[in-house]
Amino acid sequence: MKKAIFLFVGILTLMSFTNIKSTDPYKCLIQMKNYSGEGAYIVISLLDENDEYLKTIHVRGEDDEWYHDISEWWNFQGKNKASLDGITGATISGGSRAVTSLEINPDWIGKNYSLRFETAVEDKAYHLDDIKIKLTQELLKGQTLKGSGFIRFVKILAQ
Amino acid sequence: MLQKVWRLSHLALALIAGIFILLASITGLALATEPVIEHSKATSFHHLDELDLETALLNIKAEHPEVISIHRNAYNQISIETIDENFESQSFYINPFTGKKIANISERSAIYEFNTVLHRSLFLKSTGRFIIGLTAIFLILIVISGFALLLKRYGSFRKIFSKEKYDGTAAYWHSLASKYFLIPLFIIAISGAYLSVDRFLIESQPQDIWDFEQNENTAETEILELENINTFDNFKVSEILQIDFPFAASPDEYFYVKLVNAELLVSQVSGQAINRVSETPALKTKRWSFHLHTGDFSWLWSIILGLSSLVLVGLFISGILIWLKRIIKSKAKNKCPKDEAEIVILVGSETGSTFGYASRLAEAFIKLKKKVYVASLNQYSKFESAQHLLILSSTYGDGEAPYNASQFLQKLKNINQKAHYSVLGFGSTDYPKFCAFAEKVNQELHKKEGLQALTAYATVNKNNESEFINWTSELSRALDLNLEIQPPKEAQTTLKIKEISCLNCDQNFTLCLKTKKINNIQSGDLLAITPKADGRERLYSIAKVDNKVLLSVKKHDMGICSTYLSQLEKNKTFKAKIRKHPSFHLGNKKNVIFIANGTGIAPFLGMIDEAKTEKEMHVFFGLRKPESFELYKDYFNRNQSKIKSLNLAYSRQEQNSQYVQHLIAQHPETIIKCLQNDGCIMLCGSLAMEKEVKKEIDKILKAKLLTNINNYSLQIICDCY
Description:
Chain B: Keywords: Flavoprotein, Membrane, Transmembrane, Transmembrane helix. The structure holds two protein chains of two kinds. By secondary structure, chain A is α+β, with helices and mostly antiparallel strands.
């Protein structure tokens, strides 16, 4: 019995320990270009070395009836149906900016993984690789990541 | 001709866009309440022009070190976005004078969201926005054409705002509301249209503030404290819309400052703006269009916008009523074909009311087995069997043709017709060009070969029934017929006796009656009572006193109606018709003389009671004995201060017997002053009295002004029997 309790507490401790250690919070600034039209839907995802989706890190835009417009990501999300709880925010409109909190696991860094920023605006366009960049330690120190679509730039810093 | 284009386009535009205008008005009314509510909230600060931006920023930074951005909205509510201890982004309202949080940002009410979407795009996205944009453009054209019609109606811009007589019709309300809300409605239409035009055609975008050469100077540079950033010294909180704080303490991160009319990027190193873009003219127009259209900047303007929306709904309904009335009334039902008719009645009417007279006239002819055809003046053509052309026409605005008579004069020139004619003009002496169109028609008919006058040209002022009957009698004589014109069809009204006086020494008594229709009644209107005993109608002049009908009646020993009335008891009811008598209403003249004998005083008792004090009023009143006055004494006493002079004549007393005309002869200066100051003299009582009084006035005018009573005939108004 004692053993069981010990094991149970041990596992719990380990779990909570790994839970705390598993991801680090970063703050991420997204500055949009001055486009006209509705607010942009933005999906930030983690890609593996073959550019396959691994995980959805953050979604801007809360109305899921438009998610199919972000078609590549929707192919992935539609199938695996991972919960988006706590990682969504409002769309960002042209010319404005938003600060978002991102959870990034240190294990992902330096593994040839990439961060992808996908953007779509109603009646306008869809940019698969508005930003796609290898996830490195350098990148997480406030480097300016220039966008090619609706995003002007992105900066990520440790909280 | 031009006027016809205005009218047609005003109607057509309103019919096409009407339903959308109605929808936008109702939703607009709901939306107009939002700025009023938001401006009254505790989160709205009204002295932000007294608060230095730097002070406010330091307050906020002290309370919320993690602040990301600050926003000021049009309601002067200041909100900030910050990151809490759990790295969650938070937004709430603060007090900029203390920096403290005062309220959470609540989501906009679903009712406003619903109305906004419906108002802006009918829930149809871009298609709906396009439709609403077109509606706004239509509204501009409706306002412009409406303005042109107002100008036509009143003759000149200055006259538009002269006082108009209340007549309770849709046309009255339509022109009254439109003239006072012309400017706000025009602003709503223009601003709404511009917002759509901007969205679809201009797509104004601010200049890109990030489009500048960034110094790639990576050398470590010192970051300034907030209080040392000079740029912020120069602004008040009321000038800014948004400030984004730098994301990090690095030289390539800037303060972004959005002013009302410019954007700045402010360096953390130098404290100076490193780039500035100003608002483009297109954006400025868009911004002002938005403010004016939504009223977000001022609760007062929102109230005006809300009222305008309400007025627009009213204008739509009254406009439709005017249109329907015109269609229904102008459809003459003719029993015989046009070329068989012996008598052709041609009507020129703006509102359709002249058609009512035409059909009563036509019925009288039909009763005598005559073949009659009724048509509008524009339908004039050759009538093969016509012997008589009877023309009844009103005048539009400043002496122009009503809408259904605009082509008549042209057609008259080209058509050769042999007939006798008679013209009756309808109008109001309140307008300067009284019956000018009818007069013109009469002149042109006179010049035309083949046409001969049947009777003299005559007019009807303010639908005066007796003037119409006089003309038809002339017609009867000229045609050697006995035309019997039926009274207009009217609804009966129930009246309840509130008070009935005893008979006085002259067998006179007063009746005080209550009715639900009291708001439609003015002193001078007539009450038509038809006792069952003989079925004949009697007319009594009404005084409106304390919102009740007051009648003054003389009981004749053999009189059926007066006896019937004198025997009524308190709280009994009876039915009668109320007949409007606008030509005998107390107008807006500053000088008025009331002349009456016997029970004829009744309408004046009401007029004096209702009159405003700035009027100069004189009363000349003929009675039999001093005791006769007792019946009316209370009504004069309560208005003593309003009456400039009260002159009484007694005809049946021992000494100094005299009639009211003798009093007139004794006061020539009162008569002259009144007539020369554009005042009016009102007479009510017996026909004999009218004749004698007019004779005295004529004498005075001849002696003092070397003119005669005919030159002042429009200022002397009679209701005698």
